[in-house]
């Protein structure tokens, strides 16, 4: 089998598309998370781990793990941020630009090479090869090259709640964009040659290790409200 990242013939690992540590907050006390299929005909089920697929050799798994370790630390252990003058905004500091940017790209790229139905809308075309080279060569490029805008999600309650949604392709501010939801955040990647001119280009992670981010309440995010409504209307909810 051919590793999708280094392209060599090797025994492949079952690789996550979205790292397992982002699934962890969704497990109940029995170690299960609820999966609600988009297809209303398909039954709601439980899973005990995030979706995986044979994509990478062991050495490429390690290569990407280095970026993931940094992001795990930032999200779950040492979140450093400063409030800004803008209401509903913050500035994450102390990021490792190379690792954070390549982590972002690795999720997008894995979703694009994946054959799992969940990631059907992510298809990077010619950008897939360019991003593969950036990942394997550890070259994150300038901030606007495949920049990603991150918005933190607030629930407004102490009840633990997290969700991962199927990534979608769409347009944002005239640019092709892919939207992911995981880790209490919305991640929107801008895929275009003139991303420098995007209205939110100032929110892409910067080389000095800072990143502006907005914070929104779940109930103010239309597409999440719609998803939650769709789920609540199912009659097979446990
Ligand atoms: Zn490999």
Question: What is this structure's SSE topology?
Answer:
Blueprint: E1 12-16, E2 33-35, E3 45-47, E4 52-57, H1 58-76, E5 81-83, E6 89-92, H2 97-113, H3 126-136, E7 148-154, E8 165-172, E9 175-182, E10 185-191, E11 211-217, H4 222-232
Parallel strand pairs: 7-11
Antiparallel strand pairs: 1-4, 2-3, 5-6, 6-11, 7-10, 8-9, 9-10
Helix pairs in contact: 1-2, 2-3
Zinc ion is lined by residues 3, 5-6, 8, 10, 56-57, 59-60.
How far the N terminus sits from the C terminus, by CA atoms, comes to 40 Å
Bound molecules: zinc ion
Order of helices and strands: EEEEHEEHHEEEEEH
Largest sheet: 7 strands, mixed
Strand content: 25-35%
Number of DSSP E strands = 11
Helix content estimate: 10-25%
Poorly predicted runs of 5 or more residues: none
Average pLDDT number: 92
Number of helices: 4
Radius of gyration from the CA trace?
Answer: 18 Å
Secondary-structure class? alpha+beta
Q: Quickly count the domains.
A: 1
Strand order of the largest sheet: 5-6-11-7-10-9-8
Write structural notes for this entry.
The N and C termini lie far apart (40 Å). The mean pLDDT is 92. The protein contains four helices and eleven strands. The protein has helices at residues 58-76, 97-113, 126-136, 222-232; strands at 12-16, 33-35, 45-47, 52-57, 81-83, 89-92, 148-154, 165-172, 175-182, 185-191, 211-217. α1 (58-76) packs across α2 (97-113) and α2 (97-113) crosses α3. The protein has one domain (12-232). It is α+β, with helices and mostly antiparallel strands and 238 residues long. The chain is globular. The longest helix is centred in the N-terminal third of the chain and has 19 residues, at 58-76. A seven-stranded mixed β-sheet has the order 5-6-11-7-10-9-8, covered by helices on one side. A two-stranded antiparallel ribbon has the order 1-4. Strands 2-3 form a two-stranded antiparallel ribbon. Helices cover 24% and strands 26% of the residues. It binds zinc ion (ZN). Zinc ion binds at residues 3, 5-6, 8, 10, 56-57, 59-60.
């Amino acid at each position: 089998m051919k590793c999708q990242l280094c392209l060599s013939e090797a025994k492949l690992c079952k690789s996550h598309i979205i790292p397992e540590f982002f699934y962890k907050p969704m497990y109940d006390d029995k170690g299960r998370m609820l999966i609600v299929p988009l297809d209303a005909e398909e039954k709601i089920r439980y899973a005990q781990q995030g979706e995986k697929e044979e994509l990478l050799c062991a050495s490429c798994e390690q290569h990407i793990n280095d970026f993931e370790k940094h992001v795990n630390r930032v999200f779950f252990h040492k979140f450093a941020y400063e409030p800004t003058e803008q209401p509903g905004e913050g500035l994450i500091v102390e990021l490792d630009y190379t690792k954070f940017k390549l982590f972002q790209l690795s999720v997008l790229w894995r979703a694009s090479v994946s054959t799992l139905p969940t990631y059907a809308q992510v298809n990077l075309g010619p950008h897939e090869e360019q991003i593969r080279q950036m990942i394997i060569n550890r070259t994150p490029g300038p901030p606007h090259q495949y920049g990603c805008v991150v918005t933190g999600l607030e629930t407004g309650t102490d009840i633990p709640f997290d969700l991962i949604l199927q990534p979608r392709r769409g347009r944002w501010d005239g640019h092709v964009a892919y939207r992911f939801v995981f880790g209490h955040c919305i991640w929107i990647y801008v895929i275009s040659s003139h991303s420098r001119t995007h209205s939110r280009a100032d929110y892409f992670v910067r080389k000095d290790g800072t990143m502006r981010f907005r914070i929104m309440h779940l109930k103010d995010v239309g597409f999440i409200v719609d998803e939650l409504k769709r789920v609540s209307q199912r009659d097979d909810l446990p």
